[in-house]
Amino acid sequence: MEQLLSALHWIERQTHTRTNHAQMLVGQEEGLYLRDFVMQNNCRRVLEIGTFTGYSLACLADGAKTLGGRVDAIEINKELDYIIEEGLQRAGVSEIVKVHYGDALEILPSIAEEYDLVFIDADKRQYPQYYELVLPLVKPGGYILADNVTWYGRTSSHTDAKSSGISSFNQMVESDRRVESHLVDIRDGLYVIRRK
Fold first, then answer.
1. Is the pLDDT confidence value at 160 over 90?
2. Around Cβ 146, how many Cβ atoms within 10 Å?
3. What is the dihedral angle through the alpha carbons of 19, 121, 152, 40, rounded to the nearest 10 degrees?
4. Share of the chain above pLDDT 70, in %
5. Res 164: pLDDT
6. Residue 95 pLDDT more than 60?
7. Of the candidates 187, 99, 194, which has an alpha carbon nearest to the alpha carbon of residue 147?
8. How many CA atoms lie within 13 A of 185 on its CB side?
9. Rounded to whole angstroms, how far apart are CA atoms 127 and 15?
10. Most CB contacts within 10 A, which of 36, 39, 132, 189?
11. pLDDT surpasses 90 at 16
12. Distances in whole angstroms, Cα of residue 59 to Cα of each of 32, 41, 112, 144, 163
């Protein structure tokens, strides 16, 4: 745990000094929640959509490593690869992680894997599309975790593309009989979705 926390501190510092979007970090509370979720639910195969600088990825991978698992990740911005890769090395998990750089909507249809857990934290406008693409990749009894689903309270009062995307996604999940779901009140809302 000490190695992970040290790596997270480094990733957070790099994110603040080298990007203009430090608010996108999941932060320690949610990061450690993700790590614990992986371990408690025996999620050996994990996929992350939207890695940013690798904070949540390091947490997911640390949990998966304790189970002998592997993690795939998709990140659209390859310019962040130097932070992601060094952060994973500092966390001691780089050997179990494969990062795919590009548009998730283009990459996901080519994936022929089955996952215990998919974590969605990418373009909010595209949450509904991500959901439909990843649900078939999740094992029965497996999970999708979706971040920012309360979207700072704007989903019902705003009509911008991101708010509309999150709102549409939330409605899809609530009416989808293929899954069971509940909202976790952590940071900006985390949907826990279990495939039946």
1. no
2. 27
3. -120
4. 95
5. 82
6. yes
7. 187
8. 1
9. 24
10. 189
11. yes
12. 6, 15, 24, 16, 27
| Location of structure tokens 């971040």 | 147
d(CA 67, CA 37): 12
**CATH, residue 171:** 3.40.50.150
**Count: domains in the chain:** 1
Average pLDDT score over the chain: 93
On whether the pTM is more than 0.90, the answer is yes
Closest CA to 118 of 170, 74, 54, 176: 74
Q: Has residue 151 got a pLDDT over 80? A: no
- d(Cα 48, Cα 110) in Å, to the nearest integer? 15
First to last CA, the chain: 32
pLDDT tens digit string along 133-148?
999 999 999 999 999 9
For residue 109, the SS3 value is: helix
Q: What's the rounded mean pLDDT across residues 171-177?
A: 95
Rg, Å, the chain Cα set: 16
In whole angstroms, give the CA distance from residue 112 to residue 131.
16
Tell me which residue range forms the domain holding 152.
Answer: 2-195
